[in-house]
Amino acid sequence: MRKNKRKSIILWLLIFPVLLIAQIESVEHFEPKQIKADTDTLIYKLKDVHPTFLNHYEANNLQGRIDSIKESISKSMSSLDFYRIMQPIVAVDGHTSLLYNGPLCDNEEKPLFPFKVIIFNNELYIKENLSTNETLVKGSIIEKINGVSSGDIIRNLIRYISGEKDSYKTKRLEKDFHIYMALVYGSFSDFEITLNESEFQLKGAKWDDFQEASKPKFELRFYDDDIAYINKRMYMPPKDFMHFMDSAFTVISGKQINYVIIDNLGGSGLSDLADSLMSYFTSEPYCMIEKKMTKISPLTEKFIENKKTEGTIQDGYFIQEYPEHNANSKNRFSGLTYILTGPLSYSTGTCFSAAAKCFQNAIIVGEESGQPLVSNGDRNQFSLPETKMVCVTALSKVYMPCNNNDQINGVLPDFNVAPTLDDLLNDREYTLEYALKLIREDKIEISEYEQ
Fold first, then answer.
1. Is 307 exposed, middle or buried (CB count within 10 Å of its CB: 0-12, 13-18, 19+)?
2. In the prediction, which pLDDT does 451 show?
3. Could you give all domains of the chain from N- to C-terminal order, each with its CATH number?
């Protein structure tokens, strides 16, 4: 078999001991004392710099778990082994994660799980068949993988995804299922798949099989002559984002547009850009964040020194409160604005929807956002001395507008839109379709009222 080109992965998603299936001789291994030292450093540093990890550690009695892990380490291991052991402990929020950037599946040409998948009601469905067996069709339920039930595998892999809410973590796992299977369970040249109580022996898929066509960073569409649809994949990069929004709302102001739909179904990035976007469709005061508590630590010293006149020090935190401010954009849209939201509306995406709902300047359509209204944000990183692995960590506890100190729920939509399995399997824009339906019904009501 021709040896595949080395592949490396870096995971920092906004993302239990596992038996290592196959060792790669070229990978560096670390002695037990080195792994134990990095375990101690990792936990110590997270307690020191992360805004809530110390409370989480004590509330969940993690010391016993760490002691048990250290006692079980009797042989040398790779950084991938270390990731497998420690990532479920580290992944407490979507801004905190170990980064694994070593080799994965070096010795296999086709090492990856041979399907793109949908996770629906905790069952695993084939979305796209990448195997050579053409009888395995879209929508089939995958019952077992290598003898392990898909439900157990999903519950296992979810623990490796950084985040607070299962809805967010499930969607992230769905997208990168093939990567997490390899990270956690190892690489295979063959898979034993059970569907409809029948077993199939399948070859794995190649990395290139999972490549998707690139999508534009920004998009402006029009429907029915008076509806504009704006899509941005992220609140990034700053110059491109602001240039597109200025251009889009200039075009909108020159047309007879009565409704704007903003696609916020994804949306990490810079909160300042979300703030700027909101200024295009509201004339009332608003803010993106109500309060931020930044843990005082070596990772935040410079930030706090530069901002010290903007907050106060209390109980080991630098506390900033953010007043409402007026919108200042030109070409302000004065019609009705609809914002699409869902489980992957995370970080800045959740802030944006939270502010829109709190200050009542848009109608929220879709599913609950993926981040609680009180949760962690901002980030920096530190390195471990022995394995040289990097840990990205949150730095602040963020309070979004109208949060009611809610550390469980995200932004709840004004109109909830739950997808069907068919919607997910066929990549339907079900949230957009529902928003268009609401708008068209609204136009009919207005027309009947005017008559």
1. middle
2. 64
3. 77-210 (2.30.42.10), 218-377+397-450 (3.90.226.10)
